[in-house]
Amino acid sequence: TTIYLKDYTPFGYLVDSVHLTFDLAAHATRVTSRIAFRPNPEASDKTFFLHGEDLKLIRASIDGADITPEITDKGMTVVTPDAPFIWEAEVEIDPGNNTALEGLYMSNGMYCTQCEAEGFRKITFYPDRPDVMSTFTVRINGDLPVLLSNGNPSGKGEGWAEWTDPWPKPAYLFALVAGELIAHPGQFTTMSGRDVELNLWVRPGDEGKCDFGMEALRKSMKWDEDVYGREYDLDVFNIVAVDDFNMGAMENKGLNIFNSSAVLASPETSTDANFERIEAIIAHEYFHNWTGNRITCRDWFQLCLKEGLTVFRDAQFTSDIRSAPVKRIEDAIDLCARQFPEDNGPLSHPVRPESFQEINNFYTATVYEKGAEIIGMLKRLVGDEAYSKALDLYFLRHDGQACTIEDWIKVFEDTTDRDLSQFKRWYSQSGTPRVTVSEDWNDGTYTLTLAQHTEETPGQSEKLPQVIPVAVGLLGQNGDEVRATEVLELTEAEQSFQFTGLAAKPVASILRDFSAPVILEHDHTDAERAFLLAHDTDPFNRWQAGRSLAQDTLLRMILEDATPGADYLDGVLAVLRDGELDPAYRALMLGLPSQSELAAALFDRGETPDPMAIWTSVETLRQATAQHVQDLLPRLHSETLIEAPYSPDADQAGKRSLGNAALALTSRLDGAAMAAEQYAAAGNMTQQLSALSCLLRAGKGEAELSTFYVQWQHDRLVMDKWFALQVGMASPATTADVARTLTEHADFNWKNPNRFRAVMGALAMNHAGFHRADGAGYALLADWLIKLDPVNPQTTARMCSAFQTWKRYDADRQDLIRAQLTRIAETPDLSRDTTEMVSRILNA
Ligand code: ARG
Ligand code: ZN
């Protein structure tokens, strides 16, 4: 069944309070609920339907009178009084056998929950929809030392604890944790002087991985006060680390639950990239307390209301406490790698979808990352001051409500007097707009003509022009900026902008700071790109110039058998030599477009991408780059030799990132000899893992792989890296075999999503390996998706997206992929999650 946005109606009843009692038992947990309902005066449909799935009903009553309702696999409909009433029910659930990791489940002997989006209905009967909000009181009975739920503690004794959450919330924010956990404590005093007790709860053995997460939490709390004026609103804030978790983390009110990979960190076990990601996720979940929890979503179609805004806020946070240009470049890389393929393939959907079968399939790069880009464009269009005013109004007007994108847009219209109806198309039109550029120079006047076009996407054949903020600056022939950055508003299919009074024809730097999530088509020559790479005053576009130059170089190598051009090689050399440039930025400059992006670029040009030819071009360009910058490499690598004690801060991390990029190039010249030395001497995971990856890439590292295994066998998060790295670094011919062999390893605990993704995710990401011509990669992934589906539909469905780009490839590969997708689709009892994904991928 498909659910439609247009069918929204409010629930017939309001909930005044929820009291829950949990009697914990691994295979027979009893959940007793006592809920005060009253008719909703705003609703015309008074059907009393309560969601409920996989629940064994023990008893139910209304106002004390027992009832025997008819139950379907979705829930129950009951006739109720037309007046306030008390609903009571007792159900039994089996957390010990809940492998889907949705609802109440167990992970390493610990009870935990994941209710977003629709998991609460697996805990008890309830109107499980985000616009039904209530205060919750929760009593937990169980003989485990730590018993946690949302809100503030309100009672405690031998074998029980009670929690009261004073803030009305939807059921998806409910959480419960019980286990043998150790607290890593912290403290925060809010801007109005209230004391908040902080705890990071972990399993014994993980105590040494908490410092960084706690500090990140305190920084986030302070930042949200300073920048958004948002104060925390409970006496305690708890975070729990869980090993078995489908996603990154969850913002449950006052009790955030995290995938342990998204919170636990230590220098010995985590890379610099892990630290940065953890800091961002902790901030993200904390920021949800206002954008998500205090103001939530009316229905799941509005998911981007909280996710887009919260991703935007966590990106602002990272930019503020690290480097803004580096963060912007990282986000652009991520958008091109994950969102563009989604937006331009069979899974394309609007940032606010209009229909779905399984909402868990819409926690996507489009909803999150494109959703965040929309907020960034809005801020750029209205200006920083108006943005702040609009946000103040949003918090003031909508606190305690379940809102829509219309509410969000309205606060901007009301603070700026702008008509944002055309801008709103960003939420309803799917597909990535392509902006083409043409230029004219005439007698001191430079004319820039921009045209926009969006290809048709599933369900949307006609596209209207969108409002695209295009930040532009002009450079003079000597490299000076002759016009500072200005935001052009492209609102029509085609529009011209004039710059007058110029002495000579300028070089335009277009889409500075990646001012809109579009594909820019600008026929620059290599020389112009090299000029921008050398001179652009906008750090993002300077990086982008290098990226485009690299891409054009690679495409010519693939299509025309060209050799790597001097413009690219000399440009990179000059950047690497420039000691004034941030090391992190120089490291990013060394990056190349991914092989999957090159495949997309070829497909866009009407060519059929050949994965092996793409792989070869990248290897050749890497080799040529290593030779070209050879003399600089020892000095660049020495950046990693930091005297000070290890710190994951942006400064040190940037140096290591440049040093390790130099190591990767060096390994192409010295047979990975220097990498072997670095591996032997490494005192932190960043150094150890980058050295190991160079060794593997060079076809070496057998011995190191074994010692790594012995050293880290006890650490699940490090073992995930051990699994992923072997698949990621395997050669195209062996990737599928390496992955298959690893699935036979005793430590391949495939029911753990992190471990499953370590192998299968790395397989799908190894472009040439996954697309091996005989289809071995496709078949292996399909085998495992079929095996995982009955156990964990959510993780299975997410990984189906590995096949979303299948129509780019040649007919033989398409046949092979179609056969695998069909095999999955025809599996008996396939989950709703996977069914929806496979049919969208196949049928678009
Ligand atoms: N709201 C969470 C976050 O963005 C994501 C939880 C999604 N979980 C799911 N099963 N769909 O931080
Ligand atoms: Zn979120």
TrEMBL record:
Protein name per its UniProtKB record: Aminopeptidase N
Species classification: Bacteria, Pseudomonadati, Pseudomonadota, Alphaproteobacteria, Rhodobacterales
Pfam families for the chain: DUF3458, DUF3458_C, Peptidase_M1, Peptidase_M1_N
Alphabetized Gene3D superfamilies for the sequence: 2.60.40.1840, 3.30.2010.30, Neutral Protease Domain 2, Peptidase M1, alanyl aminopeptidase, C-terminal domain, tricorn interacting facor f3 domain
Reaction catalyzed: Release of an N-terminal amino acid, Xaa-|-Yaa- from a peptide, amide or arylamide. Xaa is preferably Ala, but may be most amino acids including Pro (slow action). When a terminal hydrophobic residue is followed by a prolyl residue, the two may be released as an intact Xaa-Pro dipeptide
Source species of the chain: Ruegeria atlantica
EC number(s) from the headed UniProt entry: 3.4.11.2
GO molecular function, one term: zinc ion binding
GO biological process, one term: proteolysis
Requisite cofactors: Zn(2+)
Keyword Zinc assigned: yes
Residue ranges annotated for the Aminopeptidase N-like N-terminal domain, each copy included: 19-173
Keyword Hydrolase applies: yes
Cited InterPro entries: Aminopeptidase_N-like_N, Aminopeptidase_N-like_N_sf, PepN_Ig-like_sf, Peptidase_M1, Peptidase_M1_dom, Peptidase_M1_pepN, Peptidase_M1_pepN_C, Peptidase_M1_pepN_C_sf
Family per record: Belongs to the peptidase M1 family.
Start and end residues of each Peptidase M1 alanyl aminopeptidase C-terminal domain: 526-843
Keywords carried by this UniProt record: Aminopeptidase, Hydrolase, Metal-binding, Metalloprotease, Protease, Zinc
Origin: domain of life: Bacteria
Residue ranges annotated for the Peptidase M1 alanyl aminopeptidase Ig-like fold domain, each copy included: 431-522
Leader sequence segment: none
Domain Peptidase M1 membrane alanine aminopeptidase: 212-426
